[in-house]
Amino acid sequence: MTIVETTAGPVEGFRENGYHVFLGVSYAAPITPERRFAAPQPVPRWSDIRSARTLSAVCPQIPTYGPVGKAAASKLEFGADFLTVNIRTPSVTGSAPVLVWIHGGGYAVGSANEAVLQSGAFAASGIVEVTVNYRLGALGFLHLNDGSPDNRGLLDQIAALQWVRDHIQAFGGDPKRVTFAGRSAGGFAVAAVMAMPAARGLFARAMPQSGASTGISTMDDAQKLNRRMLDYLQATDAELHHMPFETLLVAQRDLCNESYERHDVERDGSASMLGVPFVPVIDAISLPQHPEAAAAHGETLAVPMMIGCTTGEYVTHATAQPEMDFEIAAGLLHERVRSLELTGTEIVERYRHALPDHSPRGIWRAVGGDLVFQNPATRFARLHA
Predict the structure, then answer these.
(1) Closest CA to 116 of 128, 131, 96
(2) Structure confidence by residue, pLDDT tens digits, 179-214
(3) Of 79, 205, 242, 337, whose Cβ has the fewest other Cβ atoms within 10 Å?
(4) Which of 252, 373, 384 has its CA nearest to residue 305?
(5) pTM for the full model?
(6) Residue 19: is it exposed, middle or buried by C-beta count within 10 angstroms (0-12/13-18/19+)?
(7) Closest CA to 64 of 213, 152, 185, 145
(8) Tell me, what's the pLDDT at 362?
(9) What gap in Å lies between CA 264 and CA 257, rounded to an integer?
């Protein structure tokens, strides 16, 4: 048994494989209906020792985004008290470096509680590891016109980073040696948070993996998504605050699937390139400018960054299309590259010239991997440097 004091009250963890484990520790108050679209709120204080031996609930979600999203969707129980962190530490008395990890899932599915994130590999290597749950989909990223803050999913992550700054020393971590990292949408989130003024001083290094400054919405695009959501639900902004979670989730799933399967620049704007509609929005408050623009102006957080991609980023995504030839590939790409003033046919022809031995699906994978992952990572690295 290991007990650590937090500002909200004491938590009790356990030892496993030579390190200390604390699961489901709240960094913000539960997302009750009245708080679902509010900024993260402080955790109510408790007096008794609270058990941190079991994982918390996860953010409500329904599988979306084809085979990739369905595989990434959490099958764990969801509930209101999911703004939590899981901590594994080699010692509660040390001063070890800290890794804060943001999970992926297209900003709509996944959690920090999945088995793949529970191995303790970093703690076994002498690092304090912290995995973060945050609001997804409409809860985290739908723009509302009623004064609700934008980018709530990112505000949750900043609240988690603030919690780490204030508490991690009690768990054996060094608050001055925090690396903020994530994969896929988690990598997108890291890049976005690097452009948020509220994140200054909260981490010393950044490590986006398989994701960079991709999936950022203009306010005009965010208004289009708001209109789509309200039209789908035949509701007003005010009614979304009290609507059953399940109703919101069905609408969220259907809009996500529509954007992922049928890209449309007129409908989705900049989100059409990625096919993920619920994304951070440039709101002039929490996220004043696109991360690439912030980096170009020297206004991303001045921290060292390590960024990278895999050689097969789009292999699984490409399975979403059962039929594929070069003409289909060009048609599917066309809406995604229109904002770049290119055509799908032009892109396919260029790639066929560069990769003459590739099949149509191989070309589709190569283009998708570059468009969503590799090229944004390269651009962001150059600009941030």
Answers:
(1) 131
(2) 999 999 999 999 999 999 999 999 999 999 998 988
(3) 242
(4) 384
(5) 0.96
(6) buried
(7) 185
(8) 93
(9) 12
The set of residues, in sequence order, having a beta carbon less than 8 Å from that of 295 and lying 6+ positions away, is 194, 195, 213, 380, 383, 384
Question: What is residue 318's predicted lDDT score, i.e. its pLDDT?
Answer: 79
- What pLDDT is stored for residue 1 in this prediction? 77
Nearest to 371 by CA among 170, 247, 214: 214
What does the pLDDT read at residue 317? 80
Instruction: Answer yes or no: are the C-beta atoms of 377 and 320 closer than 8 Å.
Output: no
Q: What share of the chain is helix, strand, coil (3-state, %, to 5)?
A: 40, 15, 40
Instruction: Please name the residue that has the structure tokens 């590999």.
Output: 121
* φ, ψ (nearest 5 deg) of residue 205: -145, 155
CB 158 within 8 A of CB 198: yes
What was the pLDDT predicted at 66? 87
CA distance 138 to 116: 25
Closest to 191 (Cα-Cα) out of 211, 177, 175: 211
Taking residue 41's Cβ as centre, other Cβ atoms within 10 Å add up to 14
Under-50 pLDDT residues of the chain: none
- For residue range 332-343, what is the model confidence (pLDDT) as tens digits? 899 888 888 899
Token pair for residue 209? 């993996």
In this structure, what token pair is assigned to residue 103? Answer: 């999970």
pLDDT of residue 137: 97
User: Is the C-alpha dihedral spanning 181, 183, 186, 192 positive or negative?
Assistant: positive
- Residue 306 to residue 186: CA distance in whole angstroms: 14
What's the CA gap between 85 and 327, in Å, rounded?
A: 46
Nearest to 158 by CA among 122, 199, 191: 199
